[in-house]
Every structure is written in C-alpha cells, then in structure tokens.
Amino acid sequence: MRTDWHALGFTKTRGWEARDRQADDLADYAGLASWCERRGILSGAEARAYRALALSRPRMAGAAVHRAHDLRRSIYDVLRHVGTGNTPTREQLDDFTARAKRYARLRRLEAMADGVTWTWRLDPGCLEHPLAPIAWSMTELLVSPELARVHLCEADDCGWLFVDGSRPGSRRWCDMSDCGNLAKVRRFRARKRQNR
Ligand SMILES: [Zn+2]
Q1: Which of 23, 63, 122, 182 sits between 20 and 30 A of 103, alpha carbons compared?
Q2: Are 28 and 13 in contact (CB under 8 A)?
Q3: Distance from the CA of 46 to the center of ligand 1, in angstroms?
Q4: Which residues have CB less than 5 Å away from ligand 1 (the ion)?
Q5: What is the dihedral of CA 71, 75, 76, 81, to 10 degrees?
C-alpha cells in the first residue's frame, strides 16, 4: 500500500487549523524549491538553479508561489472532503482537472533498462514546472485504492490528512508522536478532572 504521496505531503506544508496556521513551508519560492528537493521531485542541482532563477525573476517567482498555494488548496479541498467520508464533488474534480491539465504536456515516456516509464520534461526556465509531479501524484491518488484510506486527523486542531496504512484501517491521527500523543494527554487530563 502506498501511503506517501507527493500530493498528500504537499497539503502538509502548512497548518490548516488554529494550532499552526501561520507556519507555511511554501511562504516563498525558496521554500517551494527546498520542499521539492526534500521530496526528491527536484535534484539538488535543479533546486539550486530554480532558486537562483527565482531571485532574478521575482514576479515569476511570486506567480509560481501563488499557483502552488492554489494547487495546494485545490488538492486539500478534495482530500479533506474524501477524508471525512464523502465522494468528491463534480466541481472539486473539475477544478482540480483544470489545474492538472496545465502540466500534462510535460509528461514524457522514457526507455529504461527494464522497460518504459513516465518521466517529466521540466523547463529549467519555468518556475512553475516543479508543481507538475505534485499535480500528477494527485491524479494517481484519486484513481488508486488508497483514496478510500485517506482520512482527516481526528485531533480537532490539526487538519492534516493521512493514508491509513494499518491493516485494520483503524488509524486516527496524522502522527502518533504528535497528534496521537496530544489526544492521549487531553483524554488523560479529562479523566483526571472527572475523578476529582
Ligand atoms: Zn494531526
């Protein structure tokens, strides 16, 4: 089962609820390029080149960051809807499809030693292109069996999503060491209050 999708990780570049809404890994283009590098979407050299280009083309960089935020919002809207037990709406899917289509022409089939695979032809002069593999990851997630395993974290001040890879499908929090622990601590405190 695949639990680590670029599209899902992309929605976790910011907090969606009160606890950490201010934090945003994609606050500027350098943040976007660094995130893509950490995910393996860009090589170190590619990320450096994109960051350098962004410094010399601030308007293009601003537009790319804006588009990244829009893409993130579009992905999040669909996955949050799905993650709370709903089917994606026609409007949500159309909105996302329109965004994903921008990057479809960057796909390229490439021969490898053991067959043919899809790769990307990202233009090093286009700051928006690193978004392509992220959008594509969402198209793959939407048609995968893992979509049924997408859930919204139960911590009420979190808002992050996760793919439940546990066999019984009973995972409740995005991260056991973070939200899971917080929820446990709260329940423990509530019990103590009741016992008093
Ligand atoms: Zn959480």
Answers
A1: 23
A2: no
A3: 32
A4: 153, 155, 158, 160, 174, 179
A5: 150
